[in-house]
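INFO  loader      accepted 1 record
INFO  loader      residues=397
INFO  predictor   begin
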Amino acid sequence: MKYLVLLGDGMADEPMDELGGKTVLQAARTPFMDRLASAGELGMAQTVPAAYHPGSDVANLSVFGYDPASCYTGRSPLEAASMGVRLAPEDVAFRLNLVDIVHHQGKLYMADFAAGHISSGEARELILSLQDELGDADFEFHPGVSYRHLLVWRNGEDRLRFVPPHDIINQSIEDKMPQGQGAEVLINLMTSAQMLLKNHPVNLRRIRDNQVPASSIWLWGHGRAPQMPTYAEKFGISGAVISAVDLIKGIGDYAGLEVIEVPGATGYVDTNYAGKAAAAIDALSRHDFVYLHVEAPDEAGHAGNLEEKIRAIERFDAEIVGAVLQQLSEPYRLLLLPDHPTPLHLRTHSRDPVPYVLYDSRQDRASGLTYCEQAAHSTGRFCEQGHLLLPQLLQRA
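INFO  predictor   done
INFO  writer      dumping tokens
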């Protein structure tokens, strides 16, 4: 038996007037996900516990089968693992976004939480410059992918509060700065970074080419290294994870899964869908389990782009779900779901439940249900603790 998780990040949404009261999942053409919903167990799952911010870190930990209450210490330690950055017990990791902050009528505003989805090559130049100028024995800047990077504070403070940049798009940042023990040190670091980035050659080129500059850094998602059992210890299986996102790869690293790099996997709407599906089929030839994550619907949700979100979901259905279903021959069990909703009108995550499908290839039935929030609600099935879905997939008590 083979096991798969197919996750379309942020696919779930809310009914929209522009779609005649439908959600994006209802409006998108998704024949393969509909087939799974009709033949499998369709329901709703709470992937974000009530006490937690609805981030992809908490939600994906749940989908991976880990109870956030027992192991969650923050987003950035997971991303650090993916980047090969090891944390001592006293170290604190921070997600570092390259962002664009603009001055308007005497206030500073978060204009773009992703610096125009800056290329990884350009971003690397900026992060290495920050390391050269601002890095020292206490602070380390590590380049990641596109706008997503890492800051490590050796022997750092973790009694801090932050606001994710994608939660404050077009809002003033003046009451959103870091707070708590050590916040002043980090604010000074952010200010110094702004001064360095302002006249950096990369940003001057981007401005000249009418592209959004990376005018500042934004710190959030901090934490110390977590303690997590591997899949071999927890479930007695081997597996692999496929994603362009450091967070997901980092969870996979802590879980002891093979982290597979797919050429052209960008973490954006232009990602290599077909390459990810092919990598999943190949990984199942040597593993019991694959976790395949696609970020594109979430990015479209953050951008507030309805057409792009529909397109991302339809490509996920055709080029991920459809491709996997057509190529798998041996018996398998599959879990299909988003990690959280990313409603277009909010342009950020919500903690609402998400529709899931548990499917077993040995079963042959047709309920006529389609894959969407409304149909999932109608079944009356509700998994209150999202981390229990993975054991159900694996048929573990």
